[in-house]
């Protein structure tokens, strides 16, 4: 998705969540988009859990394979 499309999708999913109190499972590569929507994240790499917890904490603590922070 383009950034514009991702933002639009984020707004729609956010509204659904707020209005319906829905729980969602979102599988997405765009961690910024998902972190804006989710209370909690689970990050997989090659099918293995490499991070999980509150979204802000996971995004802040997540490291790339070379050890650099994800930013």
Low-confidence parts: none
Number of strands: 2
Main β-sheet, in a few words?
A: 2 strands, antiparallel
**Strands side by side in the biggest sheet:** 1-2
Q: Encode the helix/strand succession as letters.
A: HHEEH
Multimerization state: single chain
Distance between the termini: 19 Å
Average predicted local confidence, pLDDT: 82
The amount of beta strand, in percent, is 15-25%
Shape: globular
Number of helices: 3
Gyration radius, to the nearest Å? 13 Å
* Class by SSE composition: alpha+beta
Helical content class: 40-55%
Structure in words:
It is built from three helices and two strands; from the N terminus they run H-H-E-E-H. It is globular and about 40 Å long. The chain starts with a helix and ends in a 10-residue tail after the last helix. With 71 residues, the protein is of the alpha+beta class. 45% of the residues lie in helices and 18% in strands. The protein has a two-stranded antiparallel sheet with strand order 1-2. The chain has helices at 3-20, 31-37, 55-61, and strands at residues 40-45, 48-54.
Task: Considering the chains and any ligands shown, give keywords for the structure.
single chain; 71 residues; alpha+beta; two-stranded antiparallel sheet; 2 strands; 45% helix; globular
């Amino acid at each position: 998705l383009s950034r514009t499309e991702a933002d639009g999708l984020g707004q729609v999913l956010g509204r659904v969540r707020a209005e319906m109190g829905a729980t969602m499972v979102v599988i997405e590569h765009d961690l910024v988009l998902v972190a804006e929507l989710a209370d909690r994240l689970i990050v997989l790499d090659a099918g293995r859990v490499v991070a999980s917890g509150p979204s802000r904490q996971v995004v802040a603590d997540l490291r790339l394979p070379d050890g650099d922070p994800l930013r």
